[in-house]
Structure formats: structure tokens, C-alpha cells
Specification:
GO molecular function, one term (chains A, B): DNA binding
GO cellular component, one term (chains A, B): cytoplasm
Largest interface: A-B, 73 and 73 residues
Number of domains of chain A: 2
InterPro entries (chains A, B): Endonuclease_NucS, NucS_C, NucS_N, NucS_N_sf, tRNA_endonuc-like_dom_sf
Function (chains A, B): Cleaves both 3' and 5' ssDNA extremities of branched DNA structures.
Subcellular location (chains A, B): Cytoplasm
Oligomer: homodimer
Number of strands of chain A: 14
CATH topology of the largest domain in chain A: Protein Yojf, Chain: A
Largest sheet of chain A: 8 strands, antiparallel
Helix content of chain A: 10-25%
DNA sequence: AATTGGATCTCGACA
DNA sequence: TGTCGAGGTCCAATT
């Protein structure tokens, strides 16, 4: 079989043929159609008739895209199961997710294009500039924080949450670092404050340092009010980039 | 012109024709191709050769989907600008975003399908079960929180953040509500605590109540430690669903 | 399975 | 434009 099959303005039989082939052959199914969409699950939504691009992946991911925005207007996450029904002569795609129970139904009122694509892909994204790489850099160059800083733990679970980096300063004080790869906001300060307060329950002197390329105005205000500190650090962009994720440092 | 044009295994000229038509005619461009992807901007990534679905929307949104996951492996947000170049006989799609400066390049090594779709869509999603609807419900039925509760402000900006609902209890104490449409976590408790502490700087007695369908174990622990409260409330699902967003209550 | 927090988060609202 | 917080967030990692 060929890698791609596509039929414009398919007959009922052609449409069902493409859908069944795609679902059974682990291919990507793409449909251009006028459709209505019904969703019920964590929330509930209705979308009236209009033209959309529908994409169903072999892993069960189900996307419905309007002609605007990066986000699908409706979707189902990977692991969902697709079935096809016919109601009053209209083909309906139905995707069900168990746990949480969610149902997505697409009424295909008019199909302009039905296609399948047996995509072969053995590559994964290699990304640099993440928070994980900031942490790595700080472990290698602790003086980026301050002279005498010694990082001790990464992703350390404490009483109320998980600290990015836990270490000690020159004078032996416990130091909590909260890293952000982008401009840090009020959220980030609250997070740091939560860690510092949890550790202060057990330790005499605890410093909290927010490590980020910049701060929002509100974050700066709150940080100062709380006696927390800030170090300006940019997430590094490597030349040779690593694939997948690297959470643990050692 | 017809609503859909699709060419399988297009020639160089056919491919360029479809791309140019789609970009100039405000149509959705969909390409099935073996490609390489390069991204540099807020972060930086490389993706080796493989089969993907490429979707370019008239608003500039640019999505590259592998055969797994709900999320695109690479993308560009709406407002980005697409151009086409040819390098060593290979067609390259280039999308540029200004502010922040981000560049996405897709080398089309082999194109299996090129298509355009002039999607007409005048409908927008009508969704129910949001946090905004929880707030509305509480304003109409304040006793869902407790007898004598009087909600006064919605989305009230205070010193360090924006409070969901600010009101007073039967005894005249200031009460901060933090609403979550789903199970509340540590993050939600930190948020509530931040608001309560900001208000306590100005007011004598301030209570903080987390309003959500449930709590994570960690959230419960921290909430109790901090002397904050919890009310179990489910986000309501309406029958007749409203379109778009309704942030302001009045 | 539940918890926690990152993300090129995206998106909308508001000052 | 920057700030702020929601989201059917998704997703990975750890317990």
C-alpha cells in the first residue's frame, strides 16, 4: 500500500474506506470537513457547523482545528479510542477516553477531503534552552549564583513541594534556588516562598534565590517584601543538542 | 475556485503552486512530508528527517505534528509570517515571529501530499464548566460557601495579585476565595496564601477559602498548616451553553 | 494511580 | 505592551 491515500469529495463508501484503513493501519487520518462537534467530559462544549481540519493520530490523539490559533478548538488526548457510526445518513466520528471519562463526537456534514498518511518517523526532538539545562550549568558553575555557593540536591522533595536546587552558601546557610527559563512572575515567587518557609521549619537560616533571566514588576516587589533574592541567569543554548528529556543530573 | 485543492506526490511546480495559493488566498495549507525542522527563539531545537503533517493557518499559526501526542513537535504561534525559499533544490518553509524573535524552518525533503483548504467557519466554541461559571454560581448562591457569606468583588486586584472573589462573612471578616475548576494542588494553596497575606497587611481579620471539587494530599496538608479553609464545590455544567468568554460578571 | 511542576506553554483580559 | 492567571491545559518524572 502507498504511504498516502487522498480522496476529494469522497463518496460515503470512499470516506468509510479511508477512515477504516487509517484506523486499522496505524496511519494518520486527516479530514477536511464541514462538521459539528460535541464534547462532554472534564467540561462540556458545543461547536456549530463550520469548516475544520480533523486529525486523528495512531496513538488516539484527536485534533479539530479551526482556521485560527495554535490550539485545537476541540481534542482528545492520546489513548482515546475512535469509532465510526452513521446517524441519519451522517458519518459520526466518536472518540472515547476512559479515566477521566470524556466523549468527543464529530458529525461530518460534508467532507471535502479524506486522507491517510502512514508516517514513518524515528526521530525525536532535540531541544536546548530548558530549565533542566540551567540547573546543569549551575551545578557545573556554582559561582554563577555567588562565590562559595555549593549545590547539593537537585529536584529535592521537601515538606511542601519539590525544590529545584538545594545547596549551601559560603557561611553554611541553607540556600533554595528556584529556576525559571523565562521571566519570573508572582507564581515563581510564591513557589520559592513556599519552599523557604517549609525548610525554615527545620533549619535555622534559609535563603531563597530566584534564578531567572528577568522578573516581572510584581515579582520584584513581592520578592523584596519577603526578603528573597534574585540572580539574573539566562538559560544556556547548547550547540550540540540532546534528544528527549534529561531530568536527573547524575 | 474550489474549496479544496490536493495533489499527491506533487512536482516542484505543483507544490509551489499550492503553497503560494494557500498563503495568498487565506487558506489552510496542509502538507504531508518527510522533513527536517530547525527552530530558534525562546529555546532552540533540531528535528531530524521523518514523516510529519504540517499545517499552516491563515492567521500565521504553524504546526508540525508527528504521529504521536496531542502537541505539535514544533510550531509557531499566530501572527508569524511564512515565506518559501529553495535551497539546493529543496523547498524550505520559513516562519518568522517578531517579538520575541523566533524562526522556524522546515526542509521539505519529500512531499507526499500538498493541499489547501479555504475553510469557512463562523462558529465559535460554547463551553461550560469553567471557573468563571463557578464564580457566577457563587455570586448567585453565596450560601454554597457558608451561611451569611456576602461576595463583594470579582477578579479584584490587590497588592500582590488578583483575587477570584473577595467578600465578607457573617461576622464581617474579610474572606478571600480562590476557585479551581478541578482538584486543587499545592500551587493553588500558595496562591491563596499570597492573597491572604497581602490583605492581612491592611485588614485585621482575613480568612482564606479554597473552593474546588477536591484537594490533593499535599494541598490539604499545607492548607491546614496555614490555617486556611476548604469548601467542596463542583463547577456547574449548564444546559444552554454560552459562546466565547464571560469574565466580567456585571 | 496520584502528585508535582515545567512548557518555545497558549490565550484572554486588563492596566 | 507588560502583567496576571486560567486551561477540558499537556506532559514527564517520581512516589
Amino acid at each position: 500500500m502507498s504511504k498516502v491515500e487522498a480522496v476529494t469529495n469522497p463518496s460515503r463508501e470512499e470516506l468509510l474506506g479511508i477512515i477504516d484503513s487509517a484506523l486499522s493501519k496505524e496511519a494518520m487520518l486527516t479530514i477536511f470537513a464541514r462538521c459539528k462537534v460535541h464534547y462532554d467530559g472534564r467540561a462540556k462544549s458545543e461547536l456549530g457547523s463550520g469548516d475544520r481540519v480533523i486529525l486523528v493520530k495512531p496513538d488516539g490523539a484527536f485534533l479539530i482545528h479551526q482556521s485560527k490559533k495554535r490550539e485545537p478548538v476541540n481534542w482528545q488526548p492520546p489513548g482515546s479510542f475512535v469509532t465510526v457510526e452513521e446517524r441519519d445518513g451522517i458519518i459520526v466520528l466518536r472518540s472515547v477516553r476512559r479515566k477521566p471519562k470524556e466523549i468527543l463526537e464529530v458529525e461530518l456534514e460534508e467532507v471535502y477531503l479524506a486522507s491517510l498518511f502512514k508516517a514513518e518517523d524515528y526521530e525525536e526532538l532535540a531541544l536546548t534552552g530548558s530549565e533542566a539545562e540551567m540547573a546543569e550549568m549551575i551545578f557545573k558553575n556554582p559561582e554563577l549564583i555567588e562565590p562559595g555557593f555549593r549545590p547539593l540536591f537537585r529536584e529535592k522533595s521537601i515538606g511542601h513541594g519539590i525544590v529545584d536546587i538545594l545547596g549551601r552558601d559560603r557561611e553554611g546557610n541553607l540556600v533554595v534556588l528556584e529556576l525559571k527559563r523565562r521571566r519570573a512572575d508572582l507564581h515563581a515567587v510564591s513557589q520559592l516562598k513556599r519552599y523557604v518557609e517549609a525548610l525554615r521549619a527545620e533549619h535555622p537560616a534559609v535563603r531563597g534565590i530566584l534564578v531567572a533571566p528577568s522578573l516581572t514588576s510584581g515579582a520584584k516587589k513581592l520578592l523584596e517584601k519577603e526578603g528573597l533574592e534574585f540572580r539574573r541567569v539566562q538559560p544556556p543554548k547548547r550547540e550540540s543538542v540532546t534528544k528527549g528529556r534529561q531530568t536527573t543530573l547524575f
